[in-house]
Amino acid sequence: MVVLMIAGFYILFQKIGTLESSDSQDVTNIASVSTSTNTGSSSNPSSSTSTPAETTTTATSSQLSPVSINSSILFNATSSPDLQPQAKLTVLVSRVTKTPDGNIAVTVKVFTDSATSYSAVDLSNLVQIFNPSGSNATSTSITGAFKAMPPQSSVDGIVNFSMDPSAASLILQVGPSDNAAFYQFDFTNGSYKPVTVG
Question: Does 54 share its domain with 71?
């Protein structure tokens, strides 16, 4: 009986060894077929013909992407009279983003270092898109907790605008109206610079 069990194990191990060598041979065959296929495709002229089409697709999709311009524009303002006492605030405009459909997102951070209690700020009066031939464009919406800002802190948010999608640039007016500064954002070359208006 022991002899039969040993013989059975011997036959079983022989079969396993045969399967392993067969599997390794199959893997070798697959690898060689894959290598020859890759070599053939690299020399195939149709693959080089498709490359410009892929490049064109990438360029087209990048033209449909939002354009973000990082900035470091700082200005001072006084908090809103809605919460007393009023305090001096510092506002940072850190980025302006334009989407293909004409939405403008101005990323801001308001610092309340001088405040001794909660303060508020109306950014729609402090951040506008300048219009030389008429009224400035004011925000369509503002995100961020700017109606109750804790003292000695900072609050992040976004001031949103809408403009003509075909416009390649805008002039951002920042600060109180009696001491405003103006910056031109060029979405074609991704840059901004201070400008003088009027």
Answer: no
Query: How confident is the model at residue 99, as a pLDDT?
Result: 96
Mean of pLDDT values over 179-194: 97
In DSSP notation, 125-175 reads: HHEEE--TTSPPBPPSEEES-TTSBPSS-EEEEEEEEE--TT--EEEEEES
- Domain that residue 35 falls in: 2-62
User: Rounded to whole angstroms, what are the CA distances from 106 to 95, 98, 141?
Assistant: 6, 9, 11
Once rounded to an integer, what is the mean pLDDT over residues 15-37?
A: 46
3-state secondary structure of 72: strand
Question: What CA–CA distance (Å, rounded) separates 25 from 42?
Answer: 26
Are residues 149 and 111 part of one domain?
A: yes
Q: Is the pTM of this model over 0.85?
A: no
- Which helix or strand (DSSP H or E) is residue 60 part of? helix 45-63
Computed from CA positions of residues 137, 140, 146, 147, in that sequence, does the dihedral angle turn out positive or negative?
A: positive
Give the Cα separation of 176 and 76 in Å (integer). 8
DSSP 177: G
Strands (E), the chain: 67-78, 88-98, 103-111, 127-129, 141-143, 154-162, 169-174, 181-186, 191-195
* Model confidence pLDDT, tens digit, residues 63-77: 579 999 999 999 999
